[in-house]
Amino acid sequence: MREERADVAVIGGGPAGLAAARAAADAGASALVIERNAELGGVLMQCIHPGFGLKRYGEELTGPEYASRWIGRLDGIRVLTETMVAAVEPGFRLLATGAKVGVVRISARSVVLAMGCRERTRGAIAIPGRRPAGVMTAGTAQRLVNMDGYLPGRRFAILGSGDIGMIMARRLVWEGAEVTGVYELLPYLSGLRRNYVQCLEDQGVALHLGHTVTEIHGRRRLTGVTVCRADESLCPIPATAFPVAADTLLLSVGLIPENELTRALGVEMDAVTGGPVVDNLMETTVPGLFAAGNVVQVHDLADDVSAVGEVAGAAAASHALGVTSVSAEPVLVTPGENVRSALPHHLRIESLGSEPVELLVRVRRPLESACQLRLSSGGEVIEAHRLDYARPGEMIAARLGRKAIAALEPGGRLVVEVAPE
Amino acid sequence: MSTQWESRQVICTSCPRGCPLQVAILADAVRVSGQACRRGVRYAREEVTNPRRIVTTTVRVRHGSLPVVPVRSEVPIPKDRIPAALVELRGVVLSAPVEEHQVVLPSVAGTGIAVVASRSLPRVAIGEG
Question: Which letter does DSSP use for residue A227 in this model?
Fold first, then answer.
């Protein structure tokens, strides 16, 4: 059996894993990336649209170009492709396998989990009706069109207003297919406004908010779907049902962090995000086990994923090289009014130093006018940020400044809320 | 000549923030408000006078590790040239290997703007691909 050794083993070679490996190597650790696919880059390779790298590079790159910037900077980092990690044992001992490498045992001092996420499928949302061909996730269609050169239908309906669904609407129109509309159960958009403008409005594709697919029709191939309006409690109203003819239904109804390995390690999980509980160094509740990117929570932008990947990689290197300090009780970041999630979950005050820390916040309900993100500790507001709006589809990055950090109490709570001014 | 300012709502797509911009237009004059940064002003002016978008699609490749390679216009092209650009690109067939940033068309749809490959694609031996 092949044996490998590394200070930091990174599971997953997408944007989070590539950034983690680079940061770990830059911090003086030996890094090994394990990627299940034949090439690095993860989902970026099928995201051929522009919009990547605006934050980091100040230019609009496509997914493959953004990946290439990171893949081109892997000097000094070992990579195993076509290799899947089957198990991670405490300590850490990894068991990985692949057709090319056979079985590999990897010993590592720290591990960075960067497995990303997968799409919610039809089974997960339980649409009644038959099981014809022609029902697939938006990401599957994206892979078929952009990498396999195969257009999986002629007339599409899209359920869900997630970013991949909207991006595929434009892609399909540009490939000469017809897109009948995007149907979104919620009364607001799930994805980014920018994608609504460029992918739906520009292409003349209608967005039907407060609508959902209630039935699938067709025997061997999809022939159409039934669409209904939904009431305020998101229940379909049968009297509003209308038919939509389509040979393909794309699902863009959410992403699920891929945490099978994480759970097996007994890591504390967050039921809301579907990912592990992490601190500001992206360390999970198992010492030496770090996590970053969509495996922790679903991000809107690859740039943000790279940023947390770098944090995880640098901290994993420190842990591997034995420079991590003993930690006091962390501050618990707690979602308050209108906050669905606020990460990192724990703030380790001693590791914050003088650098401001960035909190990633997702709201529950949209606020379309000026509002405030408030951070309080011990019942007192220690920092507030004015926002023009707050939308569930757009993650808010809020900086916690030096003064606010000084006001935090070990073992105390930092309550995050987003409310009208 | 009309002296009435025409007003339009534009969502800035320069960055993911998506500022809602108010644009007032009178003949050649354009007034913009609602932007968080200068890119918003530039975006709104261009959006009401000459809207442009980066066009991305795929073109066929012979003997590549994949049957298609993604391509992009180097810079945004006029929005009304996008359909012609897509038709032109549909007729392109490359031969692997393809290099990232390799020029696929030097001037797409008569715009003077190049379309380039957005990734490299290795050649595979005949019989494998």
Answer: E
* Beta-strand runs (E) in A230-348: 242-245, 248-251, 255-257, 289-291, 331-335, 339-343, 346-347
ipTM of the complex: 0.92
* Chain A residues closer than 8 Å to B100 by CB: 64-65, 68
Q: Where does residue A315 fall: left (phi above 0), alpha (psi -120 to 50 degrees), or beta otherwise?
A: alpha
Task: Answer yes or no: do B86 and A300 touch at CB < 8 A.
Answer: no
Pairing mode of beta strands A413-420, A331-335: parallel
DSSP-assigned states of every residue in A264-286: HTT--B-TTTSSB--BTT-B-SS
3-class state of residue A206 by DSSP: coil
In chain B, residues with a C-beta closer than 8 Å to the C-beta of A388 are 19, 36
What is d(CA A169, CA A173) in angstroms, rounded to the nearest whole number? 6
Task: Report CB contact under 8 Å: B119, A60.
Answer: no
Q: Where are the beta strands (DSSP E) in chain B?
A: 6-11, 20-26, 29-33, 52-53, 56-62, 68-73, 77-78, 93-95, 103-105, 115-117
Nearest chain A residue to B90 by CA distance is A175
In the predicted model, residues of chain A with pLDDT beneath 50 are none
Answering whether pTM is above 0.80, one says: yes
A135-137 sheet: strands from edge to edge: A135-137, A248-251, A155-159, A178-184, A207-209
Locate A223 and state its tokens.
Answer: 């022939």
Residue A41's alpha-carbon distances to A10, A12, A45, A61, A67, in angstroms, are: 13, 9, 6, 14, 5
Nearest-CB residue to B118 (from A65, A148, A194):
A65
